[in-house]
Hints:
This protein has five helices and no strands. It has 124 residues and is mostly helical. Helix 4 (63-91) packs antiparallel against helix 5. The chain starts with a helix and ends with a helix.
Amino acid sequence: MPDPSVLVLVLAFLIKHFIADFVLQTAWMVRTKGRYGHIGGLIHTGIHLVCSGLILAYFGFGFLIAALLLLGEGIIHYHVDWAKDQITSRRGYDPSSHMFWILTGLDQLIHYLTYLAMIALLVL
């Protein structure tokens, strides 16, 4: 059985994701994530990275490993959000569309899988 602290780390990233994606994300960030390079999407990703950095620091991971993980998380998070917005807006999917919710769920799944990959790299 794995060390229970790994489960605490998973829990921390899941709670972080809820806070950064739903509590701290503004309507402006949501509206601008589909414009590549727009500051709204970059700030949203930055919030995720600051929160993830705090988790990694709390758990005592070194600067270099944290920086590399955060770089990967940032690239993935930004582009997953951007791609989801591109697909939903170009295809005209909105919250009344079943495909909107499939893509939203896929977006969230990829974010969660990113955290699992980060944690796997930390513990292996």
